Amino acid sequence: MLKCSRCLATEELRRLLRIRWQDFQTNESIRRQLSRQHTIVDGVRRRKLELFGHICRMPDNRTLKRVLFGAVEGRIATTRDNQGSAGSTTY
Fold first, then answer.
1. Does 10 reside within a domain?
2. Which of 4, 41, 63, 73 is deepest in the core (most CB within 10 A)?
3. Residue 89: inside a domain
4. Whole-angstrom Cα distance, residue 29 to residue 33?
């Protein structure tokens, strides 16, 4: 998904500068022309890391932190279909 959003952002930048894809300009040179050093993908990645850091600093008893780190109590029950092969997993 990140690759797709990076492509869309580059297409928009090309459209703003009226650069056709046949002109063989690199994405980096296009970003330099607009003095943009960070892409949209970089911004999304930074926000995700900030959220992760925020969750890591939460107390251990918070549900969101327990879900993120897989510490939720419970049991996973699996079922088998009529042929004896592994079937669907129910929670």
1. yes
2. 41
3. no
4. 6
Which structure tokens are listed for 48? 């995700």
Residues 6+ apart with CB under 8 A from 55: 64, 65, 68
Largest CA distance in the chain: 63
Asked whether residue 60 is domain-assigned, the answer is yes
Torsion region of 19: left, alpha or beta (phi above 0 gives left; psi -120 to 50 gives alpha)? beta
Q: Which structural domain range is residue 48 located in?
A: 2-71
pTM recorded for the entire structure: 0.42
Residue 87 in domain: no
Per-residue pLDDT, averaged over 23-39, amounts to 72
Please state the domain count of the chain. 1
Q: Which two tokens stand for residue 56?
A: 């890591």
Residue-wise pLDDT tens digits, 34-58: 766 667 777 888 899 999 999 999 9
